[in-house]
Amino acid sequence: LRSSSGVGGGLVQPGGSLRLSCAVSGITLDYYAIGWFRQAPKKEREWVSCITRGEGSTYYQDSVKGRFTISRDDGKNTVYLQMNSLKPDDTAVYFCASRYYFCSIEGSDMDYWGKGTLVTVSS
């Protein structure tokens, strides 16, 4: 069984912070890249960030650069998305997904998906 699960969402005020976690099972981060995607109400799903296998290079969508940080703990087989300076436009369901070897900004390229966690940024 290979799965990912994302947790850590919730309600936060603008300017606040949240950390999402994605625990993967049945696969190892030695061979899989992990991406975060999000889908806001009435909008298409969009790519947010990715961390590669191996050396762990990181990539971000322009709108989250400088505010979000993706990282991983290989010992816990977990990837994190630290989100700071949150804005109402960040409100969405966030999904983590894995892909063998390489990052991709295309959701259709991903191999396995987590269940999604809702992040709401509102005063």
- The first-to-last residue Cα distance is 40 Å
Work out the helix count: 0
Output mean pLDDT: 91
Question: From the alpha-carbon coordinates, what is the Rg to the nearest angstrom?
Answer: 13 Å
Kindly estimate the percentage of residues that lie in beta strands according to DSSP. over 45%
Number of β-strand runs: 11
Largest sheet: 7 strands, mixed
The H/E string reads EEEEEEEEEEE
**Which residue ranges are poorly predicted, with pLDDT under 50 across at least 5 consecutive positions?**
none
Bulk shape:
globular
Structural class: mainly beta
Helix percentage range: under 10%
Spell out the blueprint of helices and strands.
Layout: E1 3-7, E2 10-12, E3 18-25, E4 32-39, E5 46-51, E6 58-60, E7 68-73, E8 78-83, E9 92-100, E10 112-113, E11 117-121
Parallel strand pairs: 2-11
Antiparallel strand pairs: 1-3, 3-8, 4-5, 4-9, 5-6, 7-8, 9-10, 9-11
